[in-house]
């Protein structure tokens, strides 16, 4: 039974975490580093935007995006991006309803980025 549960847990991790994202556990938090994919209306990858998702054990996910393109800043949720430090290119994305886990945060951000690009192209 234990082997079956281990298999299910490993499959869940593979399905919920993109392979090009690296995970680091430190104390009570897990930090994911990788690139968000931005798709055009045909489904082709147009951009890869460096990001970080920090998951606290008992809190919601925090999302950080490095140097978001102009089309993201012009999006209706562009005002949800907050510059972390002056003269820095890291922005924190604020959610009205924060994601509870990596998969939810990752999916939301890729959707937001893709929607921003498609709206810019229309």
Spatially, the strands of the biggest sheet line up as 1-2-3-4-6-5
Order of helices and strands: HEEEEHEEH
> What would the principal axes of the Cα set say about the shape?
globular
Q: Count the beta strands.
A: 6
Secondary-structure-based class equals alpha+beta
Cα gyration radius (Å):
16 Å
Helix content: 25-40%
Strand content: 25-35%
Counting H and I runs of at least 4 residues, what is the number of helices? Answer: 3
Q: How far apart are the termini?
A: 53 Å
User: What integer is the average pLDDT?
Assistant: 84
Number of folding domains?
Answer: 1
Question: Major β-sheet, in short?
Answer: 6 strands, antiparallel
Uncertain regions: pLDDT < 50 for 5+ in a row?
Answer: 2-15
What can you tell me about this protein's structure?
By secondary structure, the chain is of the alpha+beta class. Helices cover 32% and strands 34% of the residues. It has one domain (20-121). The chain has a six-stranded antiparallel sheet. Strand 1 (22-26) and strand 2 form a beta hairpin. The longest helix is centred in the last third of the chain and has 20 residues, at 102-121. Residues 2-15 have low confidence and may be disordered.
